[in-house]
Write a structure and sequence with these properties.
Elements: E1 2-5, H1 11-22, H2 32-40, E2 43-49, E3 52-61, E4 66-74, H3 83-93, E5 101-104, H4 110-114
Parallel strand pairs: 4-5
Antiparallel strand pairs: 1-2, 2-3, 3-4
Length: 131
């Protein structure tokens, strides 16, 4: 298994990604066009088993002060095999992320992210949905 970092996503892999994100609890409301645009403007991490994608993460970053881990998932058949751990290690070691304050939101994986130094925020988080 290899971890490749790419902003030049293969069209067939982007189709795969769109399908997964549209069925996720955080991406169900997105359109295919929004997902494609988000990928184009982000630092993307892909995990492959051979040529087949098995995990993905997208990082939004200014490369200096702040980063946000978004859209991270490992397909079910590869969960529990260290794929997510390797993916997070690659993300947090990347020069565009390594020296930034890194944030993320999760509904079901806080314990996993805490292993990498993330802490639950105590201050309120504000949010504005698009109109």
């Amino acid at each position: 298994m290899t971890i490749a970092i790419s902003n030049e996503t293969k069209p067939e892999n982007l189709t795969w990604l769109v399908g997964h994100l549209l069925h996720s609890y955080w991406g169900w409301w997105l359109s295919e066009e929004r997902i494609r645009e988000g990928v184009k403007n982000s630092l993307c991490f892909w995990v492959y088993d051979g040529e087949t994608p098995v995990a993905f993460a997208r990082i939004v970053t200014d490369k200096a002060m702040f980063s946000s881990v978004v859209d991270l998932f490992v397909i079910e058949e590869y969960q529990g095999q260290g794929v997510g751990r390797k993916l997070m290690e690659a993300i947090l070691d990347h020069p565009d992320v390594k020296h930034t304050v890194c944030i993320l939101a999760t509904r079901d994986a806080a314990a996993f992210y805490c292993k990498f130094g993330f802490e639950l925020a105590v201050d309120p988080v504000l949010k504005k949905d698009p109109i």
